[in-house]
């Protein structure tokens, strides 16, 4: 028998990293030590108080029943309290907050709630692939690339955008993969444009708590008028190193939240209750909007790793700018990004080619600093050797 995929699945682009993964796997089988600087998965554990809460809450039999699709009220209240303390944003936990099984799920299901076939969706380029693929193509929308160029600090040029037929705009700052950031003036320009053109703004704020050198990331909901047009996605994955626990949340305009709730009510039963209880405790570890000492310590580790990697790249003759946020370093490689990544695999360093994030990512490489200092130092030595041959 022969089975045909749905047309929407056939439209998905090929997985550009498959060949690099195949080569890396072959190298490992040959005994080559691979240093993985490609994956954005924290290597540091969750805070001790999160692990203790997980042991306690998961051992309670009452916490193993179904949850509501919107999430338990206690969790939504914790999210609302966190937003009030962290960003100064008031939220109604019953109407303006929803729990997610990770923000990736929320982004895709939100698009499912609002995109009709043929709707144009502004997606950053380069960007996290889920915006164009999982959220847009799989919902029969049309991705409209929104170039993020180095000369504009990897921010969209709002005045140059073709907004005809646009239903949704995806934005992500602090940005993956570039590490670029936005301030409130930048966000106000986005909100003003969205209100004028009746465009939904999906703001992915997953990296707001991983910041350096005094920078403090805002929420788009801090901007006047944002509640009219915006929904913001967040999770505990990066903030509390809980990527595998799959717990996130979306907040914002009540009609947008309700649309997402309707889709989720047909698809899932919400995150596990015990995970919501753990996540609520994690959010409550903030005091007066300030993160607990553990998160500050983790950020200090990332900052040292960032500085170490950038110093090593510069010593190898590559100019690169320090990011103010995220655990990524975005570097212009001056050639085909796949060619550069392949060359790095030959010396046992796995990096992410920029072309995997979109056409405007070509010529760049993304490094992740989710490896110990010693591994980053060794990777830098290998990179220097590869580039000086």
Question: What report would you give on this structure?
Answer:
With 389 residues, this protein is α/β, with parallel strands linked by helices. The chain folds into two domains: 13-45 and 292-388, Aspartate Aminotransferase, domain 1; 48-283, Type I PLP-dependent aspartate aminotransferase-like (Major domain) (Aspartate Aminotransferase, domain 2, 3-Layer(aba) Sandwich). The chain is built from twelve helices and twelve strands. The strands form three sheets. Strands 2-8-7-6-5-3-4 form a seven-stranded mixed beta sheet, with helices on both faces. The protein is globular.
Low-confidence stretches: none
Number of helices: 12
SSE-based structural type: alpha/beta
Number of DSSP-assigned strands:
12
Name the CATH homologous superfamily of the largest domain.
Type I PLP-dependent aspartate aminotransferase-like (Major domain)
Please give a quick description of this structure.
This protein has 389 residues and is α/β, with parallel strands linked by helices.
Write the layout of secondary structure elements.
Blueprint: H1 7-10, H2 18-29, E1 35-36, H3 48-58, H4 73-87, E2 97-100, H5 103-114, E3 120-125, H6 131-136, E4 142-147, E5 166-172, H7 184-197, E6 200-204, E7 230-235, E8 248-252, H8 254-265, H9 273-283, H10 293-315, E9 328-332, H11 337-346, E10 349-350, E11 352-353, E12 364-368, H12 373-388
Parallel strand pairs: 1-10, 3-4, 3-5, 5-6, 6-7
Antiparallel strand pairs: 2-8, 7-8, 9-12, 11-12
Helix pairs in contact: 2-11, 3-9, 4-9, 5-8, 10-12
